[in-house]
Amino acid sequence: MSVAIALTTIRPLERETLGDRVYGHLRELLMAGRLAPGDKLSLRGTAEVMGVSMMPVREAVSRLVADRALEVAPNRAVRVPIMTVSQFRELTTVRIEIEGFAAQRAATAASADDIARIATLESAFRALSLLVRPDLAEAVRLNKDLHFAIYEATGLPTLAEIIGALWLKAGPVLNLDLGANPDRLATGGAVRFHADALAAIRAGDGPAARAAIAADIRGAADFIIARGGLAAA
Amino acid sequence: MSVAIALTTIRPLERETLGDRVYGHLRELLMAGRLAPGDKLSLRGTAEVMGVSMMPVREAVSRLVADRALEVAPNRAVRVPIMTVSQFRELTTVRIEIEGFAAQRAATAASADDIARIATLESAFRALSLLVRPDLAEAVRLNKDLHFAIYEATGLPTLAEIIGALWLKAGPVLNLDLGANPDRLATGGAVRFHADALAAIRAGDGPAARAAIAADIRGAADFIIARGGLAAA
DNA sequence: AAACCATAACTGTGATCACAGATCACGGCA
DNA sequence: TGCCGTGATCTGTGATCACAGTTATGGTTT
Predict the structure, then answer these.
(1) How many CB atoms lie within 10 A of CB A160?
(2) How many angstroms away from the CA of A168 is the closest CA of chain B?
(3) Is the domain A85-227 a CATH 1.10.287.3510 member?
(4) Pairing mode, if any, of strands A78-79 and B71-72?
(5) How confident is the model over B83-102, as pLDDT tens digits?
(6) In angstroms, what separates the C-alpha of B159 from chain A's closest C-alpha?
(7) Which CATH number is correct for B2-79, 3.40.50.300, 1.10.10.10, 3.30.390.50, 3.40.50.80?
(8) Domain residue ranges in chain A
(9) Interface contact B62-A67, CB threshold 8 A
(10) Which of A15, A62, A94 lies nearest to residue B158, judging by beta carbons?
(11) pLDDT digits (tens, 9 = 90+) for B171-207
(12) In Å, what is the CA distance from A3 to each residue of A11, A12, A15, A93?
């Protein structure tokens, strides 16, 4: 009997369909920058790679297309959107406002547990960034976890989901670039801005938290725009 | 030759698939409150009603589920999510912040054409609201067009899309309630708040525009919460 | 007349087939 | 040798079939 209870307890309240699994996988690839802007991907090809039929891939891709994380070209080719400089500027503007608001709100709404989790991730990211040859994939993951630990501390899950959609669009540009310029981890101000954000949240200082996150976003965006790797239009 | 040029000019750059069409149709139904929270809808049933096979409906529904505008219950039933009071409060908080920011930005970024369009819609909404027996569906449409005329005047299409997703969630609650309480059109402050917003945008006063839109959102939300028709939890 | 159980009719999910159109490579022509 | 046309191949989209599970229904029994 106890075994049966344990099983029913473990079973997730919503079972995960194959489409959900494929969606999660593609989402991770996009956020981590493993898929570069312009990369094409075929439904049948990815279906074969993932060992499923075309249907779950179709469902996952249609979701990502709806969120503008992927696009279907008029040629009927699914690819990661190629972002122009002005589109990237617009996305950065929206991110600074929305993520800035989230940080501000987190400063006054975060629980002690939230702050502890944020502090742990900040410490881990800082330690990793100062290594001579840091694991970039791990750095990307820690950076994401740190940011979303802050955003989820707002108590506004809708807001965190919106920001997730924004990161899905920005991921290919941001993290692909990071692979080409690993120095940004150390020379960029991310470590300092994260520390500022943590201190502001600890102090309950909303405006300071907003400023720190805004500076973090702006710093990375300016670096990428300066590199000039984005499309012209 | 001139005929060929004319044809290539007329042809839409992105052809619309059946899935897109079904998505647009369901989206309108949700935003207009024609689908109430808790309403179930079957893939085969709606497919037959719309005269297509199940596939386009599947794609459209999967998109709406991804955006939390629909949900699939563990029973494998697709339905409009039933919103609790706390969820509605959270959604309202996010809307006030994001739509408020958009209004603020529109006040400084709107072009003369943008302002003219906003003024036209404001006038039409006001005229309709003051009728003794206004067409509710038309009022909902005008209200939506007016708000999005403001949001699109920001020059930030990403922001307008985010707000569209928020309206998709709020639509069933807001506009279904409006059908039950048509008086809200006249007694609620919508007409006044819209006029305030237009005046602020004309004056380039960002904070005032933000305050007007925030008051508009809060007014409708408070009215609905006071009615007590939402789920308890 | 009320309760209960079996069966039939639905549900979404996944796989497979069909089709129009675009891409690409290969072979023939200039 | 360079260019163009043409067929094979691959693309996403739509339809249909199969399946496991839930819901509703109708008949039987107490």
Answers:
(1) 17
(2) 13
(3) no
(4) unpaired
(5) 999 999 999 999 999 999 99
(6) 7
(7) 1.10.10.10
(8) 2-79, 85-227
(9) no
(10) A94
(11) 999 988 787 788 888 787 899 999 999 999 999 999 9
(12) 12, 16, 20, 52
